[in-house]
Amino acid sequence: MYVAGVDVGSTATKAAVMGEDGQLVGTGLSPTGANVVRAAERVFQEACRAAHIEEFDVAYIIGTGYGRYKVPFGHAQVTEISCHAKGAVSLFPNTRTIVDIGGQDTKAIRTNAAGEVVDFCMNDKCAAGTGRFLDACAAVLDMKLSEIGDASLRSTHPLKITNVCTVFVESEIVSQLAHGEKVEDILRGVHNAIAGRSVALLRRVGIEEQMTFTGGVSRNGGMVRALEERLGMKINVNDLSQYVGALGAAAFALERVKHGIDLPARVERPAPTHSGSH
Amino acid sequence: MITVGVDLGAGTTKAVVLESPDLLRARYFVRTGTKLEEAAASVREGVLQAAGLRPAEVDYVASTGYGRYQDKSRDIQITEVTCHARGAHHLFPATRCVIDIGAQSSRAIQVDGGRVRKFKMNDRCAAGAGRFLERISRALEVDLATIGPLSLESKDPTPISSICAVIAESEVINHVTEGRTVEDILMGAHQSIADRVIALARQVGVEDEVTLTGGLSANPGMVRALERRLGRHVNVSADSHYAGAIGAALLGQQRLQKLRAGADGKPNTYDTNIPLKPPVPIGT
Asked: Tell me: the pLDDT tens digits for A203-260?
């Protein structure tokens, strides 16, 4: 018996498949794009393939993330706040504070040892301090999103970025380039600016060790460093950090199955259109 | 007496040549770009050429806008709030409320006889400013100059729920995939800006007459959205874009008159901390 969590974020959609013992057996990742339903199907199929199981082996599926109601094969939905707390504690059991930086929002969550949410705070009104902000900076500098973190670590004289608004930061970067500033110094400034905003959000829920970094931006080494410096403490991050929401959703699914919930009749799922095509 | 008003904005740099309070001799604008000093120099060169004047014939230069300190040949700099109030009053003397929407900032000013009574502004974020529309037009692949007229063709405006320009960009793409028309999305975007600036205006008090200034005053979609959302007529003229520069030139002229009359014994009340040029002796 298997369970799964599908986390439909603004930028990326993630899936995690878990065995009866709570062991992660497969993951899937895809850009969300305009067709949210397709993205959810794709990552679920990918995770099942990675786990070497059939889709019908998965007994219970929970959707989370902003597109959680667009997982047509999901049996239930749980908010991403709850899933991130659950997932972070399952990945790093001593987690008490979570900083989640996604494509379009940033969250600060405080949790207890059971992975229950104690408090949270979020910015989803504006792109400042989110992955989008980094995306825009990378585009202005004509770099790949995956390169800018490492580039920022080569900075010797970090610049101070004064704007908060993503749109204005783009112009600020253009004028800094025009004044001959170094790309890595600009980038370090950008990372520091985001770290500053995230830490302000974290302070509102209270910072308690250990801190775990989740969401797509946790893949950026420059961001990890900038946050650690600003916080003055180590933060937990690993290859699964981006999947924490999906992991948490799968953990909830497993709990529900184990506690003998009445499994609803399977929602009719459209036949996979591209199964095994790549 | 020739005064030049220069308004260094985030998007464009505007300049006017004023011969007397009633005689505007020339107007000119350039894109600001990243080098403010160069923008200031080139706009002055352009406006003097348009006026048929040599630099030596200029008596006084007043600069305003966020880049006002970068205009190296200024005699004085004045905040844009003061200048927009004065400029709007000059264009429409019954103005009581000025709404200025620029590329990177928007402000609402309550004025009385051209003087500022209260103001509110947003220059922290692109929501409610021209950059918001720039992003939307880019996402829709529509030329920025045509978005205003295009939006007027909207029959059923699509509300844009995201406040942030960057997030609104993705929202707009979703609206397109859902089959909303470009006109409807564009009018929705104009209404979004209107709602942001009206929120500012309500804080200072909306009273007739309302005058729109700044770069977005040239956009008919913006004027329509503001009028509909406010339920009032909004004054706009071809010179609304130059309101800041006109205000600067007028205030500069006033200042120069005082200096020449020798009646000015008191310190400068504007935000200046550079020494003024000595008064120009009359008849030289």
From this structure: 999 999 999 999 999 999 999 999 999 999 999 999 999 999 999 999 999 999 988 7
Chain A, nearest residue to B162 by Cα: A125
User: How large a percentage of chain B has pLDDT more than 70?
Assistant: 92
Task: Give the closest-approach CA distance of B104 to chain A in angstroms.
Answer: 8
Which is it for strands A235-236 and A211-214: parallel, antiparallel or unpaired?
parallel
The answer to whether residue A15 scores a pLDDT higher than 90 is yes
The first and second tokens of residue A278, run together, are 């790549």
- CA–CA distances in Å: residue A145 to residues A136, A141, A150, A215, B149: 9, 10, 10, 15, 37
User: Do A105 and A217 share a domain, yes or no?
Assistant: yes
CB contact under 8 A, A167 and B174: no
Q: Which residues of B touch A169 (CB under 8 A)?
A: none
The distance of B174 to chain A (nearest Cα, Å) reads 6
Tokens linked to A151: 């580039």
Chain A closest-CA separation from residue B19 CA (Å) = 35
* This prediction's pTM: 0.78
- Identify the structural domains of chain B with CATH numbers, from first to last: 3-83+243-261 (3.30.420.40), 93-236 (3.30.420.40)
Prior bond of B209 cis (ω within 30°)? yes
Domain contains A126: yes
Q: How many domains are contained in chain A?
A: 2
Do you find a cis peptide bond into B203, omega within 30 degrees of 0? no
Q: Would residue A276 count as lying in a domain?
A: no
Cβ contact (<8 Å) for B34 and A174?
yes
Whether residue A69 lies inside any domain: the answer is yes
Check CB contact under 8 Å for A164 and B177.
no
For residue B164, list chain A residues with Cβ-Cβ distance below 8 A.
125-128, 166
Token code pair at residue A272: 């996979």
How many A/B residue pairs have CB atoms within 8 Å? Answer: 53
Count of alpha carbons within 13 Å of A101, Cβ hemisphere only? 28
**Considering CB atoms only, which of B125, B173, B177 is closest to A165?**
B125
pLDDT tens track for A183-209:
999 999 999 999 999 999 999 999 999
Task: Assign residue A249 the CATH number of its domain.
Answer: 3.30.420.40
Strands across the sheet containing B3-8: B23-31, B12-20, B3-8, B60-64, B76-77
ipTM of the complex model: 0.73
Structural domain boundaries, residue A143: 97-239
